[in-house]
Amino acid sequence: MQSLENIMLITDLDGTLLPSSKEISAADAAAISQFRAKGGKFAIATGRTLQAAQRYINKLKPNIPVILFNGAAIYDPVSEKWLYTEKLPADAVAVTRQVLDAFPDVSAEIPRTDGTYVARMTPYEKEHLEICQVEPILAEPEEIPEGWLKVLFAIAPERMPDLIAYFAAQNWDCADFVQSEARFYEMLPKGATKGSALRLYRTLCGAENWKITAAGDFDNDLEMLRAADISACPSNAQPCVKKIVDIQLTQSCETNAIAELIHHITKSLEVHSMDEMTKKQLQATACRIRMGVVEGTYHAKSGHPGGSLSICDTLTYLYFAKMHVDPKQPEMADRDRLVLSKGHCAPALYSTLAERGFFPKEELKSLRHIGAMLQGHPCIHIPGVDMSSGSLGQGISAACGMALAGKLDSASYKVYTILGDGEIEEGQVWEAAMFANQYHLDNLVAIVDNNGLQIDGKLSEVCSPEPIPEKFEAFGWHVIRMDAHDFDSIDAAMQEAESIVGKPVAIIQKSVKGKGVSFMENQVGWHGKAPNQAEYEQAMAELTAQLKELEG
Known about the structure:
Blueprint: E1 7-12, H1 26-37, E2 41-45, H2 50-60, E3 66-68, E4 73-76, E5 81-85, H3 91-102, E6 107-112, E7 115-118, H4 123-132, E8 137-138, E9 151-154, H5 160-170, E10 176-181, E11 184-188, H6 194-204, E12 211-215, H7 222-227, E13 230-233, H8 239-242, E14 247-248, H9 257-268, H10 276-300, H11 305-309, H12 312-322, E15 337-340, H13 346-356, H14 394-408, E16 415-420, H15 427-438, E17 444-450, E18 453-454, E19 457-458, H16 459-462, H17 468-474, E20 478-483, H18 487-499, E21 505-510, H19 533-551
């Protein structure tokens, strides 16, 4: 297993880690302890005050700062210091007074760093304080010193809609308001959420390079889940939470959901140790596929070798280590599908299919010839080709349709699609991205070949779609970054993609255009130009030497 040194887990308390008894289960406590012992960084993010969270801090022993007051503060339990606090404006006093006057059955709990004040005691407030083991200071709003971190209004669940409607009618803009439980409605400093605190946390706590997994169950956890690298929720989470997370746990807060999540994290870090022999075999196969690309484009006297060579390793892994396909039954119903959305890179797909045994390698020499089977862009009549493609942006749309059909049929197959980084400048790509998120197509994996070059020049100078990962994340996809020419990286990315539930996966692969042929690498001119005889001979000599070394 990889080190947990840069792995952070931050979880909400009530409804996520804490069951209705408010006692942490032995299984969850043990899993957290083992996670920390293996180098993992553990924290909590809660709406509770320090006083109300202290017994859980004492039991769980977070080894990094925690988020309190629903994002209004970050506290380091190790040094016992406040690292950040965001306070409500003075207007909060008048707002609180107005709400108390309008609702005789509502209480107002006002936490500060020095303790918890209560402006009106009600049965719900009393129960809450007893559960949290907090001794309050009773005072009127006007008597409480400034430095309010939030206000927690408690009311009977059946009265909550009336309270929310009242707040909405006032149009108060001095603070933000959020429901945090069935009976709690909170007034928070403007812009303060668990998510804003987590984003600040990255720089404040030196967590820029940590891989952060966040777990939550309620509305007030949404921004934190979006800010994390990986998001998860227990089975009891609200529908709005389940809709956006990467991982929907099978267990609830009552049945050790966090222990399940920690097991998932550690399992995902297990090195799927690709032995050196297997790796060399894949490298040799990729080399032969590159030779097929050069062979095909040379005999065609046209074609697109640059972008074809950059995806050969990915195609090799998919067809020789991952996808369920059978050259003898190219149309079997339960096969995995691949749509080459960057269809002009057909030479790579054709060479891969020939190497896999879908048709003879001799066919490559007739690429683009009149009457030949292999034309300039993939055609569905070719054995092993799942979709005709070529018009940029349309392949991913077809892949979405295939994935949705699989969902409707309860089929087990996966759909993979490969796009160019220049291709994603097409608007249709983002329509497909919205569609895939809308229908939770977790059987779809889109691989963006990020080689940085397109037909007219550098991606950054033509019409940059960067930042690519953040754009897919904004469209609701789970994003993985991958080295396109490292089989360990490819293997890890594909394994992670396999584990994602409830949302589509985008793999952004960093690649080299023209990979494997020295004079073609990172040269935009080889986007759509065939090698002449001298270039063909040099390219084949280089690839033959690489193959000999791999097979030697």
